[in-house]
Amino acid sequence: MKYVKLGSSGLEVSKICLGCMSFGEANRGSHTWTLNEESSRTIIKGALEAGINFFDTANVYSDGTSEEITGRALADFANRDEVVIATKVHGRMRPGPNGAGLSRKAIMAEIDNSLRRLGTDYVDLYQIHRLDHNTPIEETMEALHDVCKA
């Protein structure tokens, strides 16, 4: 496997990133075509054996079950310091006015939830899944900065 720097950071990632949107419980969320945990684990293990160290998921994929499956498989098959975990924030995860979006409140709640589901105390790359036109970009960027500094 070849590895490259991620953007202008010092982080080295495999040229291939395994997207984990297809992992999850089919009866949760809007993706009825997802793979179950056993099939997902087989793919993740194979990716690790091929040298892939970069795994991307999101809080909304199968209502969080993609993060759960990905986190458990990586904990079982890899050393945490040897993999790069990316996840995303934006979509609706709970009812109510702050259950989605990129407000400070939503970001802070969702990073905690993602960390719990992934079974780790940090993610290497935390991304916004799409823009939130109802939240000032300054609020979003400050919240993301604070997540990085925490």
Automatic annotation (TrEMBL):
The keyword Transmembrane helix does not apply. Keywords: Oxidoreductase. Pfam families: Aldo_ket_red (PF00248). InterPro entries: AKR_Detox_Biosynth (IPR050523), NAD(P)_OxRdtase_dom_sf (IPR036812), NADP_OxRdtase_dom (IPR023210). GO terms for molecular function: oxidoreductase activity. The keyword Cell wall biogenesis/degradation does not apply. Residues 15-147 form the NADP-dependent oxidoreductase domain. GO terms for cellular component: cytosol. PANTHER family: NAD(P)-LINKED OXIDOREDUCTASE SUPERFAMILY PROTEIN, NADH-SPECIFIC METHYLGLYOXAL REDUCTASE-RELATED. This is Aldo/keto reductase family oxidoreductase.
